[in-house]
Structure of Tyrosinase copper-binding domain-containing protein:
Amino acid sequence: MLSTVPLVLSLLLFLQTPVKAFFNEQGDLNGRYYKGSRYRTCETLLERREWRTLNDVEKADYINAVKCLQSHPALDPPITQAQTRFDEFQAYHSHIANAVHTVGQFLPWHRLYLKNYDSALRSECGYTGTAPYWDWTQDAEANSNNSISRSPVWDPLTGFGGDGVPGTYTLPTDFDDDSRINPPSFVGCVPDGPFANYTLRIGPGLLNTDHCLVRGFNESAAQHLTSAAIANATKQQSFELFRIEVEGQPLTSDHRMHDGGHIAIGGEMSNFFSSPGDPMFYLHHANIDRIWWTWQQAVPSRLYEIAGPSSTVEPIYNVTLEYPLLMGSLGPTLQIRDIMDIHAEPSCYTYIRKPLSVDWDAFLRHS
Ligand SMILES: [Cu+2]
């Protein structure tokens, strides 16, 4: 028995060696030391893919998972009108909107929000597919008029349904400027697709009334959704300039890709508070997150670069990597530093540009 003691000791010493090496490699970023265990590398990376590279079965799996979230009861929403888990995500965005836009935590907060939505689709609705993104440059640069409205993402059978129909929705009259509702954008109800019959309870704006999914496509926003628009952002040399160039108004005088995408879809999606009531919110923001990740990867020091004001009202601080990202009932509070590297725990996802070759196993499972 005694002879096992030195054996165990030498085994422990042996095991310590790679742990130390890991700490040296990962432990000092931006002059700060943190626990290596917090930044475990991922066992696998979930792959996020462009919507149109999914086959019809994969598209249906995603839509069905969103509809599942729209059928599960809310857990602990910050706005009592929220009835479903889908509403709960929308309600939390509305609740916290003033604190997470036009500030340094804008991109990190939305990165974690999307991750929690993806996790809910998987753990609560059994979704096993990709978290899709919408690369709107493929539509904005199409050689046709009405390039946004011609996108396959609006397909009524395989996509998210199309434009709102004029005259089918009447905005309530009792909203004030705080709701930031742009009436011309609320064209009408989406009559087709998988969400035509879903009753939204949060929004529009700060009103929380039962209503249909409202859209109002705006083709002129396509000019903010081109590769040139992306290049204008990704050429910025500091995070502070980059996040301003991505987010758009009111930080910039004209629209940019973030607000441009919101305005291109219009209706609920155009609203500062209630935009996640349109399921396309998550595909648009995944593309914004992908562009941020592209910018982060271009220069090593950008992986943990963060800056910007913490608030739009006093007291205002500079956002640091310790800044807490509040998620309420959607998930645990994490610090910005925890989500900067999407290839590390707890994020563990990546963005795929090209379509994958046919996965015959998946094909045979579904057929
Ligand atoms: Cu937002």
Remarks:
- The pocket of copper (II) ion is lined by residues 93, 101, 110 (CB under 6 Å).
